[in-house]
Amino acid sequence: MSDSLHKLSWDDLRIVKAIGESSSLAAAATLLGVNNSTISRRLSALEEILGVALFDRRRSGYVPTSAGVELVALGERVEKDVVGVVRRVSGNLQTHRGDLRITTSDALLLDFLTPIIASFQMKNPEVRIEVIVANEALNLARGDSDVAFRATLSPPENLFGRKVATVAWATYGRKTDYAHASLPAADLYTRHWVSYGKRLCGLRAFRFVEDRVSQENIRYRSDSVTGVAAGISAGMGIGILPCMHGDLVPGLMRIGPIESEIFDELWILTHPDIRKAGRVFAFMSHCAEMITLQRDFIAGRGVHAGPTLLAEKSSNL
Q1: Are 242 and 125 members of one domain?
Q2: Whether residue 202 is found in the same domain as residue 256
Q3: Which of 28, 270, 292, 293 is a Cys-bridge partner for 18, taking CB atoms 3.0 to 4.6 Å apart?
Q4: Tens digits of residue pLDDT in 160-193
Q5: Which strand ranges, in their side-by-side order, compose the sheet holding 127-133?
């Protein structure tokens, strides 16, 4: 057994973990950037060293044996430890330079974050920024992203961050259709509607529409805020949007009050291991300050500051 332990490497654990997660040699090879024969050869050699089968080879794919389950779990623990140590070590060396990966939703990026990111980069030109647009959460613990912006009431407990604003929602329609119309609230629910798809069923806006509008009247769905706004703009119906997005879409207007039942909290999040890294700390602090200037607008009151004013405010911070 001692010889087996000496021969077991991190690369072996990575291979077992990749096969366990994908149930396929080909998928594991793609994930690790090697060819199939290498994966197959390394797995066979490892099973010979350990003297035990790690996977059952079935038509449906590779299924971990009890020994395989233990090694997959060990690989996950080691990966987490390695990523954490690397982040802490590199974070101590980094200042306001290097790569920064951000994840956010399409609507937040389009309307709101791009000028804030631009104002940060003007002050920190040696930081290279990559933005990943995703309406679902990425795994910050595994390094998918450094900083995440999320509109949520339940931020993950394993992340570090702060709430920077409360997001208000209201019903929107086209100005050409509603600029001169005055409709009782109940009449709105008999109109054609644009709503959210099942991938966003966790949104309060999704449930709000489902509870009030018949399925026959929901003529179009999208799994993104910008998709819903585009559907409204195209005349497919009215819909619920965050005010910070709907107020900025040309041709749209609020046709109902701010809905007190629908709100989100805007959070800036990162992994605890890198929260003190120079570029991460500086970026999160900058964004929090810029967003604080626009809390009233995000909450459905006030006017959007705009890129020019944000740049001026940024230069004074």
Answers
A1: no
A2: yes
A3: 28
A4: 888 999 999 999 999 999 887 767 777 889 999 9
A5: 127-133, 98-104, 147-151, 252-270, 160-174, 239-242
